[in-house]
What does this fold into?
Amino acid sequence: MKKINIAFIWHFHQPNYQQNPNSDFLLPWVRLHASKDYLDMLKKIDGFKKLKLNFNFSPVLLESLYKYSKGAKDTHLRLLLKNQNELTIEEKIFILNNYFDLNYKNMVLKKTYYTELYNKRANALKLDVDMFSSQEYFDIMANYTLLWIDEVFKKDYFELDELFLKEKNYTFEDRKKIYDIQLDIIKRILKEYKKYQDENKIEISISPCYHPILPLLIDLKVAEAKNFENLPDDFYGKDDANEQIKLAIEKYEKFFGKKPKGMWLSEQCVSMETIKMLQNSGFLWTVLDEGILSKTTGKEFIRDFEGNLENPFALNINYKLQEKNSLNIFFADSFFANLLNFGYGSYDSKLAANDMYEKIKIIQSKLQNSPKENHIITIALDGENCWETYQNDGNDFLNTLYGLIDEDESINTVLLSEFLKFENIKPEILENIKSGSWINRNFDLWIGESAKNAAWLYLASVKKDFENYKKQNIQDISGLKNKDGILNKIEKAYREILICEGSDWFWWYGEPNNSKNDYIFDLLFRSHLINVYKFLGIKVPEYLDMPLSIVTTKPLRNPTAKISPSLVCDKEDKLKEWENAGYIFIPDGPTSNISRLVKNIYFGYDSDFLYFRFELNKNSTKMHMENIENQIAIYFINEYGKNYSPIRLVNKNKNIYPILKNRFSHELRFVFDVKNVSRIFLNKATNYNLWSQISAKKSSIAYNDIIELKVAFEDLEFFQEKSKELSFCILDATNELINEVYPQDVLINILSDDNF
It folds into this structure.
């Protein structure tokens, strides 16, 4: 039988969990996966005579492992190492919220006493910190940490078995031993990987330094985003993309003593420009998802009902964009990746391993008549997050699978760079490569959703401030006494920008992904943006103090009681007459640039009137330019209106806000400049999608730096006896354009039954 080659590529990545280079890690995942996955995945090689494996590390993870090996701590670890009877109420709450975060079936149930504590926490109808004794809190932390240490290490650390069996009454010395074992495992990781690499048992590839989505850094427009609202128009990150690659190579050389031959692009995100960068940087190979090959060639891979490829030829070869290029492209079999990530964990491990082996043999049999002598099955996926769903942390599955392959003389496990040296390896040539990622062949998980777009806008704004500082301070730097100090500031600040370009921040912002730690990811992202200003020694913009999730997902505060303000337009008036008003949040920052007219909008109502308060942005360029007609428009829907017409303004942006698709019963407008405001113009929807002007006889408007508006429900034909609901939205309608919409996603509703 013609031999088949298999390249296993196990990808390891964790983001930067520190708020600054010297702070504790806010989340423990580097430390926990280090004692459960990284070293264990490598040491499995020792049990097989010819097994070879490929591994990938993100440099930001390598940095974190190195810091832990030198004694860095995280929040969880600080608590684990506290002396008895020193826990505060806040710390106990933290333990109850964070020290049960693991797989119940395959991890929790390993320990009887910890299971009792877990169930006590899970079944509590009303959770109280006094439900657990001080000792129980320390036992929770000790058991949790032990469950994140792979049991294979019992053979290396004789105390580990005793600590596993103890289950309760862990002392401070016990907990210190648990950490000491973890620390020793972490210290071994980078040394062992370098040793196995030097022995040619493994190949290690690298990812861009802080795990950015390179195609988006190079050109945001490559995303073909679903929603372009709030994306920066002038974001330039191509130089940063090159720097992310350059730093990755440097860090690889630091830890492994030579240059890497392969690069795993973050999230397997690719574009033509990205491939050119890898080529120019001297890489020999990269790996992409099979979906990108299908998207590029226009040919889908057809599988039978068991997932077997009808024709595996095109997927099991290597490619190049041009024959003279050195960069080879391997395409990973996504069916195997999905089985490993999401399928096999729920099955008996040995049966699952045999099933995968049989699927490999089916591919091999179908390639017997291929004109090519060497084919390769590329199995590339996350190597750390799936094993909690497997029995015995995946050890039974991997040992069985590796054993079946190792005993089969017709199967070779190969290092990708070695495969390229085989005789008769002639790659197929692709004319181009389509942009996309391993998820749905697009970039939707990192851009095109309101929160994600706002994060890109924040990054672009901070990056612009950084570039301005750099330009102003580096022009004549040769003559400055403090030249080294300025360059050091710039270098530190630039590192923070590179960190903020990491994929994880955009992954967790907005939909569809969410975790119990979303607020921490938001804090970390904004902390690194703030660090840019701190390192440069300049004022931090106030908008960076506010969680981005509030800016994008909580734009509205509803009124808390009826209000009847007097329209005196007093700047301090909102503290009195407007204190129970509702509030439409308009972020003060990159999402509200110098052209934005309005800083804040308050609204409320009583039985007869709807009230609005507009705090204006007097620094807006629009306020001081001739030939600009500053205008606010409010569109209403009275559910008992006879006619409804569409908004009659030109949409300025490519994106169409969902609420703009509504038809409305009434339209209210007013025009203003720095000193004056017009009367109220009120229009009513008529037949044929048209509007006609009507009298706003009971409504009024006032202006004194602030615009306050009183709209009579009677003018809007909103009467309690027949109308139940009135909805509205507010537009910056300057120059008859839709410039801004408040709020963007949903209309604001007033219900007569509830409020009158």
Remarks:
- The first strand starts at residue 4 and ends at 12.
- The two ends are 83 Å apart (CA to CA).
- Residues 39 and 189 are 6 Å apart (CA to CA).
- The chain has four domains: 4-11+200-209+236-429, 29-43+63-197, 450-550, 556-755.
